[in-house]
Amino acid sequence: MSKSKKIALSAMAVLSAVALAAHPVSAKSTSGTVSFPSAYKNTSAASKSANNKSTLKVAEPNDSPFEGISDPVLASNAEDADVFAPGGLDTLFFNDKNYKIVNGGLANLKLDRKAKTATITIRKNAKWSNGMAVTAKDVEYAYEVIANPNTTSQQYSSDFATIEGMTAYHAGKAKTISGFTYPDGQNGKQVVIHFTKMSPSMKYAGNSFIWDSVEPYEYIKNVSIAKLASSSQVRKNPIFTGAYKLDKVVEGESTTWSPNKYYFGKKAKIKHIVISVVSSSNVDKAIQSKKYDFTSPNGVMHGTDYKELKNLKDYSVIGLPELGYDYFGFNVGHYDTKTQKNVMDKNSKMANRSLRQAMMYALNLDAVEKKFGYGVSWRANTLLPPVFSKYYNKSAKGYPLNIKKANELLDKAGYKKKGKWRVRPNGKPLTIYFGAMQGTSAQQAEYQDYLQQWHKIGLNVKLATGKEMEMNSFYDTLEKPKQSKIDVYAAAWSLSSEPTPTQIYGEDAPYNMGHFVSKENTKLMNEMNGSEAWTESYRVKVFKKWQAYMNKEAAYAPGSFSYTWAPVNHRVKGYNVSPSNNEFWSNLSLTSSKIK
Fold first, then answer.
1. For the chain, does the N or the C end have fewer beta carbons within 10 angstroms?
2. Which CDD domains match (predicted)?
3. Is-above-0.85 flag for pTM?
């Protein structure tokens, strides 16, 4: 049951190409079997009149207004990526079906393992949608925005510290990042990044060492990095490098697009696109009454939606296994703004591992997914989705229902019952606050089921703030350096196409909203991209070991895996969400002027 998603890693770059998942395209789940094609093959001829005069209408399913941050370096919600996707999200590289970076995009990448350099060469005709040239400084400035001490970006992690001079810049001790050089000047077309070490993940799109988008330096240079996210250049009049340019933003509600005449690649065929937010309670009716051509390719669609829409005439369901997962997070510490690192609090309410494990064993996630998943989602067993088939630990058990074990864990850890509820080992009352986002009626039922299951083992768990929280308010609370409103929460990640989790669960990762830190976790994540990791079998072993370790610690615990899918109207031609389709939006056309 996917919740509103946070974007993790450089997922923005991936989403621009709607590269949602790697193979396979069908999988068995505990809730049944579903199989989706990754493309809708429309054999009708495209209509020039329809492309010129009618509007492609896209629904973005969400129960909150989108935040409106168009800049992929600063945005953190997948919903923002969805509504600004036709602009290309300023992605640098194209990738193949396995997400390996290939030539042909806005820029090409050349890695030199011996010299420890990455050379990025921008194509000569690369321009922004206002006609400005894309320059070497535009590549470098993305790193400045990410690592600036006053930034609002949440993308920084220790992996970026492998760039020479990055640590000094991030600490505010240097005004520039010394590891960037410009063979033909800042206004030229080439950047060389100098690293202290190279990683095998650098070959893949969305890796956590080389950022995959550009910043329009000349357009935004006079705005301080601290205020960039609220600037008109980002909120009202952003520019893009993709197939479409933005014509209009209705704050939190919709974006309107037309072809970008400066786009380097395949020219856009459809002259008008509108992407509108539609609540989860209305999205099925909106599709059934033919108000939209499709839902956002990476939008959150539930099993209950699939049940309503799977047999709809004039629409086909297209999708792939999701590059992401739902999870449970526990608040076990805080973020130290001086050191810019997460810190575990040994005396925090949720610090006891047995308490966290017990809460997970109390949940009946298999039953929940069977009831509401309709084959589209199923209980997750680890913090890495099965689309990463090489690294996924399929033998991991995760947290199946085991009430007996949950009670034993609590008893042994000293959480004794005093009347109806258990108390802390020191005898003080224990009230646990559960953070849940507003969603569908099925999600509301799911949250109530969680509370009932926790009550069964004697834990007094209540909804944080007394009710479900609006998405932006939910994340605003979790993103505070220190907060006590939420002890445990249900959320979801939209992942990058390279599975290294440093930017989600690293010691210095702002995304590590539960603030879990341990020497073992840091060691394992470093080993994923260490020198030995160039041997694939070693890297696979480390990933599997990390998944087992995180399951044991249960500071973050797996919730569900799912498919990402969309109903696509039969007047749409060229709809294809396979990872190698790097020009999703300009490959679209229409075969009739009205939605069929």
1. C
2. PBP2_Lactococcal_OppA_like
3. yes
Residue (of 510, 505, 512, 511) closest to 526 by Cα position: 505
CA distance 98 to 101: 9
Q: In the predicted model, is pLDDT for residue 30 greater than 60?
A: no
Rounded-to-integer distance, Cα 165 and Cα 390, Å: 34
According to DSSP, the residues that pair with 316 across neighbouring strands are 568
Give the span between the Cα atoms of 535 and 542, in whole angstroms.
11
CA–CA dist 596, 315 (Å, integer): 8
Strands (E), 13-163: 26-29, 32-35, 56-61, 94-95, 101-102, 107-112, 117-122
Note the pLDDT tens digit of each residue in 518-546. Answer: 999 999 999 999 999 999 999 999 999 99
Which residue bears the tokens 């509103």?
4
Q: Which residues contact 295 (CB under 8 A, 6 or more apart)?
A: 58, 59, 60, 61, 283, 287, 301, 566, 567
Residue labelled with tokens 């990463």: 388
What is the mean predicted confidence (pLDDT) over 448-466? 98
Is the alpha carbon torsion for 193, 199, 202, 207 positive or negative?
A: negative
Helix/strand/coil for 594: coil
Task: Show Cβ contacts of residue 280 under 8 Å, excluding neighbours closer than 6 positions.
Answer: 61, 62, 63, 300, 302, 305, 439, 440
Contacts of 520 (CB under 8 A, 6+ apart): 549
Axis-axis angle for helices 365-372, 441-456 (nearest 10): 160
- Give me the domains of the chain, ranges plus CATH numbers: 53-86+241-313+569-595 (3.40.190.10), 91-238 (3.90.76.10), 320-562 (3.10.105.10)
Residue 463 CA to residue 544 CA, distance in Å, equals 34
- C-alpha to C-alpha distance for 275 and 237, rounded to whole angstroms: 17
- Give the least confident one: 29-33, 139-143, 289-293, 434-438: 29-33
pLDDT in tens, 292-338: 999 999 999 999 999 999 999 999 999 999 999 999 999 999 999 99
**Quick one: which of 561, 550, 267 has its CA closest to 396?**
550
Three-state DSSP class for residue 31: coil
pLDDT band at 15 (very low <50, low <70, confident <90, very high): very low
- At residue 25, φ and ψ (nearest 5 deg) are -100, 0
DSSP 8-state assignment for residue 24: P
**Pairwise CA distance, residues 382 & 539, whole Å:** 17
Q: Which residues contact 587 (CB under 8 A, 6 or more apart)?
A: 266, 574, 576, 581
φ, ψ for residue 268, nearest 5 deg: -65, 140
Query: Residue 12 phi/psi, 5° resolution?
Result: -50, -45
Q: How far apart are CA 38 and CA 24, in angstroms?
A: 10
Q: For residues 566 and 203, what is the distance between their CA atoms, to the nearest angstrom?
A: 30
